[in-house]
Every structure is written in structure tokens, then in C-alpha cells.
Amino acid sequence: QIQLVESGGGSVQAGGSLRLSCTVSERSYSNDAMGWFRQAPGKERKFLAAITWSSPNTFYSNYAKGRFTISRDNAKNTIYLQMTSLRPEDTAVYYCAAANRWPFWTGEVDMNYWGKGTLVTVSS
Questions:
Q1: Counts for the chain of helices (H) and strands (E), in that order
Q2: For residues 68 and 113, what is the distance between their CA atoms, to the nearest angstrom?
Q3: Which of 28, 94, 115, 121 is most buried, with most CB under 10 Å away?
Q4: How far apart are CA 18 and CA 86, in angstroms?
Q5: Which residues, including other chains, have CB under 8 Å from residue 99's CB and lie 6 or more apart?
Q6: Could you report the per-residue pLDDT of 88-105, keeping only the tens digit for each?
Q7: Any residues with CB less than 8 A from the CB of 66 and at least 6 apart, and which?
């Protein structure tokens, strides 16, 4: 069973930055497409950004563009989410997830694996 483990969450003041990491236990066809999502208290989970292990392409939701950057390190089986200019409304549990292909953010493709999440709290 492939496992995804997030890390890097924590508490930060508004305007600060954080870098989240997600390490995959192994890479395969079933998790070539990786993504970051978040779920704020009392709200639905939202897609943030996507990347694949096999190509340099990335994709962002409108509210992630400009402040969040997704990247990967194939040698470490790890993807990252660099977050800057954080706001209190960015407070959420951040999840990474994997699918065999994209565009999973449209709902056309199901995610095969999810991490347990890492909490980010942004104070004003």
C-alpha cells in the first residue's frame, strides 16, 4: 500500500511563509499525478496545485496562483508546497494526494491515495 506523509505544517503569523512536504513511499503509475488540497474548518476540501513525477508541468487553482508554488524532488519521492504571504484565511489542514493522471481537479479522475494532512495555522 502506497503511503503519503505530509510534514511542515505549523503556526505562522500573517505575511509569513511555510514549506510543506509530502513524501511518497514509492512511485508508480498509480501515483504519477500529485496534488495539494486543503480543508478549512467547516468548509469543503479545495484543490490547490498539481504536478506530475514524469513531466515538468504544474497547474494551480486561481486562489493558489501567485502565492503558492508546487515542486518535486524525484530522487526523494517528495513534493513540496511553498506558501508565501500567508493570510489567516489560509488556516486549514493541508493534504497531499495522488492519482494515476490528471486533470484530477475537475473531478474526472479519482485520487488513489491521500495523506493524513498537516495543520497550518495563520494568526493575524
A1: 0, 11
A2: 22
A3: 94
A4: 8
A5: 31, 32, 33, 34, 35, 109, 110, 111, 112
A6: 999 999 999 999 998 988
A7: none
